[in-house]
Design brief:
Layout (H helix, E strand, L loop, with lengths): L1 H7 L2 E4 L2 E4 L2 H18 L6 H15 L10 H23 L5 H4 L3 H4 L19 H9 L10 H11 L12 H9 L7 H15 L6 H24 L7 H12 L9 H10 L31 H22 L3
Antiparallel strand pairs: 1-2
Length: 326
C-alpha cells in the first residue's frame, strides 16, 4: 500500500516537462472513452480508424504483465474492448477490402517489445523554422495527386501473403513518390513513407536493420520538426489529424521526444466528452483534411478518433514502462 501511494505521488521529468504519475489514469480513461465511441459507430468507421484499434490493442498488450502490475486490470479491459470491436467490424471490412484484414488489421504483426530511445533525433529537428510549416501547408493539397497509399500498402500485402522472411517490392509510382521525391517530403508524405517501412518490417520483408534504423531516425527527425514548429508557432490546431498521425508513427518507433506532457494534455483536452476527436480544431485549413476521413454528424472524424486513441495508447505504454515501474 505504501509503495502504491509513493508511486502515485511521484513526478517524472520528460523532456523538461513534469510528468505526474496520475496521468496514467487520465490516459486510460481517454482510451476507454474512444473505444466506447468507436463501438457505437462500428458499422460506420473506416479501415484507418480500425487500424487505430489494432495498434491500441497491440501496444497495450505489450505492457500487460500477467497480473503483477497495478495497471494490468486496466490493460486487460482495453485489450478486451479492442478485441470485441475488431471481432464485430472485421467481417464488414472483409467484404469491401479483402487484402486489408490479414495484412493490416492483424494485431499479432504489430505487437512488439517497445524499446524507448532518449534524445536520439537529429538536432535540426529542434530549431524554430517557419519554412517547415510552409512546406506542410504548400504541399498539403498534393495529397489528392499522390498514388493512394493503400495501393502501395497492398503491394506489400501481395508479396507477404504468408508472414515469412522474403524480398519485397512496391510499384514504381509509389517508390518515386515516397522515396525519391524527398524535396517534397512533408506532412502525410512523411508519415506514409514511414508506415510503408513499418508494414514491410511487420510483414517480415527483408530489411537491413541499420538501414531501417537510419531511415526511421531521419523520418522521425523531419516529422518532429513539423510538430515542434507547429507547437512553437501555435499552429497545431490547424493540422491536428496530421499531428496525431505523426505522434503515432514515431511514438511506435520509441522516440521519446514525442512523449511530452504538454502534448499529452493537448490531446486529452481536444478529446470530446463522447470520446471522439475532430479532424481540425480551427476553420482555417479545412481544405487540408485528409481525403479518406469520414466526418460524422457530430463533427468527429473516424480517422482522427482512431489516431487519437492510438496516440493515447502509446503514452499509456510509455508511462507504464518508463515511469510507473513496480
Amino acid at each position: 500500500m505504501l509503495q502504491t501511494v509513493g508511486l502515485l505521488c511521484l513526478a517524472i521529468l520528460s523532456h523538461g516537462n513534469l510528468f505526474q504519475i496520475q496521468d496514467i489514469i487520465k490516459v486510460r480513461n481517454g482510451i476507454e472513452k474512444s473505444l466506447m465511441y468507436i463501438n457505437e459507430k462500428y458499422k460506420e468507421v473506416n479501415v484507418d480508424c480500425l487500424f487505430g484499434v489494432v495498434l491500441t490493442q497491440a501496444v497495450v498488450q505489450d505492457v500487460y504483465q500477467n497480473g503483477s502490475h497495478l495497471m494490468d486490470e486496466s490493460s486487460q479491459n482495453i485489450i478486451r474492448r479492442s478485441s470485441n470491436i475488431l471481432n464485430k467490424t472485421i467481417p464488414l471490412v472483409r467484404n469491401e477490402e479483402l487484402w486489408v484484414v490479414p495484412t493490416l488489421l492483424n494485431v499479432d504483426i504489430w505487437m512488439k517489445d517497445l524499446v524507448y530511445k532518449y534524445n536520439d533525433l537529429y538536432s535540426f529537428s529542434k530549431i524554430p523554422n517557419y519554412g517547415i510549416l510552409d512546406n506542410v501547408h504548400r504541399f498539403g493539397d498534393r495529397n489528392s495527386q499522390l498514388p493512394n497509399s493503400n495501393f502501395c500498402l497492398q503491394d506489400i500485402a501481395n508479396w507477404t501473403s504468408k508472414i515469412m522472411p522474403r524480398m519485397c517490392s512496391i510499384r514504381g509510382d509509389c517508390w518515386k513518390t515516397y522515396y525519391e521525391m524527398d524535396r517534397f517530403s512533408s506532412g502525410y508524405i512523411l508519415t506514409h513513407k514511414l508506415l510503408l517501412l513499418q508494414l514491410a518490417k511487420a510483414r517480415k520483408c527483408i530489411i537491413n536493420k541499420e538501414v531501417y534504423d537510419q531511415e526511421t531516425k531521419l523520418l522521425c527527425s523531419l516529422i518532429y520538426a513539423e510538430i515542434y514548429n507547429g507547437d512553437y508557432f501555435k499552429e497545431l490546431d490547424e493540422t491536428f489529424d496530421l499531428f496525431l498521425e505523426e505522434i503515432v508513427v514515431c511514438g511506435y518507433e520509441g522516440y521519446t521526444e514525442f512523449f511530452q506532457t504538454k502534448w499529452l494534455y493537448y490531446i486529452l483536452d481536444s478529446q470530446r466528452n463522447s470520446g471522439c476527436f475532430a479532424a481540425f480544431l480551427t476553420d482555417k485549413r479545412k481544405s487540408k483534411i485528409k481525403r479518406n476521413i469520414n466526418v460524422f454528424e457530430d463533427g468527429c472524424a473516424d480517422h482522427t478518433t482512431g489516431l487519437g486513441m492510438a496516440a493515447l495508447s502509446l503514452y499509456y505504454n510509455f508511462i507504464v514502462k518508463e515511469i510507473f515501474i513496480l
